[in-house]
């Protein structure tokens, strides 16, 4: 994990660089030389906060390669209705 440090001015001038750096580790943003904020990828944030991804979120992803989903086959039998 690489920690990248950027000033607020650098962040404002090159947001795409900050977003790219956040993919490999946190981006420490400084304001007047002092740490003020941290930019994280959504995956890092979810790991940090312990949030789980819902099945709906997992299915909505464009790349399903990392989702293992192999539900067991269910056999549903029928029986006569008791109308009395």
From TrEMBL:
A Pfam family this chain is assigned to: PhdYeFM_antitox
Region listing for Disordered, in residue ranges: 1-22
Database matches in InterPro entries: Antitoxin_Phd/YefM, YefM-like_sf
SUPFAM superfamilies documented for this protein: YefM-like (SSF143120)
Regions annotated as coiled coil: none
Residue spans of biased composition, Polar residues class: 1-15
Record family assignment: Belongs to the phD/YefM antitoxin family.
Function of the protein: Antitoxin component of a type II toxin-antitoxin (TA) system.
Protein name: Antitoxin
Record organism: Methylobacterium thuringiense
């Amino acid at each position: 994990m690489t920690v990248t440090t950027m000033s607020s001015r650098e962040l404002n001038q090159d947001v795409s660089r900050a977003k790219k750096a956040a993919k490999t580790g946190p981006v420490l943003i400084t304001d007047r030389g002092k740490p003020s904020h941290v930019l994280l990828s959504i995956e890092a944030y979810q790991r940090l906060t312990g949030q789980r991804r819902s099945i709906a979120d997992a299915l909505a992803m464009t790349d399903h390669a990392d989702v293992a989903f192999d539900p067991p086959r269910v056999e549903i039998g029928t029986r006569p209705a008791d109308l009395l």
